[in-house]
Design brief:
Elements (H helix, E strand, L loop, with lengths): L8 H8 L6 H18 L5 H16 L2 E5 L2 E7 L2 E6 L20 H18 L6 H14 L4 H10 L1
Antiparallel strand pairs: 1-2, 2-3
Helix pairs in contact: 2-3, 4-5
Amino acid sequence: MIYFKGQKLQDFIKSHSPKVPKDEDLKRFQANLSNFLDKATKRSDEEYQKKEIEKFLHQSFGYDCNTKGRIDSAIYVEGEAQVLIEVKSLANKAEFPKSPQDLHSKAFYEAILYFLRETQKEQNPSSPTQELESQINSLVYSLYNLTPEEIGIIEGEK
């Protein structure tokens, strides 16, 4: 059985001792964010967006970001992917969630698939992910209303 205990936000925050950013850190972050937003609108292709996001995260927080397999980008801590980043072209609106209330999208399902692959590998490196991949693929196929013929073409490409 799970029990919940109410706790004030201030008490929760105190118990985790978050760092308060210095003024110069906030100014650097604001400058990096402004620079990132200016550059992000110059080109809409996925590779460009990915590189600009990685530069922003590195310049602002010192994060080591890189690609891994089919993962567009990830933040690595001590060689392990801790945050996965799924990047899509800004021009390809069909791959984005339709609204904050309706997250059904290719990008959302891919991010979940890649996250689960990574966490499952860490917990059990020899564990197959076929069943999980099939479930997520089925969701994506239904999202795009693919016919059996279209699915056959996609499955044949794997």
